[in-house]
Amino acid sequence: MFGLGMPELVIIMGITFMVFGGKKLPELGAGLGKGIKAFKTGLRDVEKTVPALDEVKALKSDLHETEKH
């Protein structure tokens, strides 16, 4: 995982705990979870529209082919 071992992760978590404190960490975790969920939802929405974009490109190429003839 990005070349980070257990000691590095423990140090990062310790520094995070000292900076934000015990009361703020649950709020940060909840905000991070909501952000990840929103990102995944947006990604799924984009994936649903991509096939439609492929169809539009195919129709445009068909239109150009018929205009040439």
How is this structure best described in words?
The chain has about 70 residues and is mainly alpha-helical. The protein is built from 1 helix and no strands. The chain is elongated, with a radius of gyration of 24 Å. The mean pLDDT is about 85.
In short:
By secondary structure, the protein is mainly α. The protein is built from 1 helix and no strands.
Our measurement of the CA-to-CA distance between the termini, rounded to an integer number of angstroms, reads 56 Å
Overall geometry comes to elongated
Mean pLDDT: 84
Class inferred from helices and paired strands: mainly alpha
Strand content: under 5%
SSE order in H/E notation?
A: H
Computed Rg: 24 Å
Q: Roughly what percent helix?
A: over 70%
Largest pleated sheet: none
Q: Quick one: how many beta strands?
A: 0
pLDDT < 50 stretches: none
Tally of DSSP helical segments = 1
